[in-house]
Amino acid sequence: MSTVLTAGGIQKVVSMSMEDEVVPITVQLIEINVVPSTLSGEEHVTATFSDGQHFYRMMLAKRLSSLVKLKELRWGDIVTIHNYIMQPLSNDMLGCICLDLLVVGHNDSVIGSPVEFVPPKPSCIANSNFVGVTSEGLCSDCQQSPCDWSVFGPSVVQLVRDTHGNKPNVEKCLLNRSCRHAAYTTFARVKFGYLGKGKRVPLPACVVNGIRMNFPDESNFYVGFIPAEQSDE
Asked: What is this structure's pTM?
């Protein structure tokens, strides 16, 4: 039965960086924890997944948490995780947020003899120049608690600065414009997964404002959302 699980899947997820392409893994759900939020009163759900060799706890995205409440996701389920993101935590460690999964089977006992996977502490996981947006409780823009920008923003900004921000011969206004475009695309990928060529979704104001604060235009001129069918690209 252990052959249905992705060998080394937990290590692949925990060791990935924002530059890496997300590789789907098949794992078993071996523990569910429902944690009430002290700010909004809403519940957050963490799930422990095992690949038969290691187990690791991940936070479930809000829409996946509802599957637990509906009992459509339960202990022993074998799932394929299609989208996830590693996120800096306040204790200088990395945490994983599971964004999308599909239940593909069930087993009444734990497969294998998994032990906890403890990743090495990274030397530097967050960019000190990140401009955040503080929002207590439910965000009125994205309707998430905590706000989507506070969850995904640090990783998005760090990746964009690492991959697009080191071009000394490019004017700052052009560089920031390029970074904004990259940040919009990156956020959409980590939030929604791969949308397909030519598909675009409008982002909530908290995310748009957060991106503009980190990569501002000196003249305060921004194009805004353009549907794919109206784009020249």
From this structure: 0.61
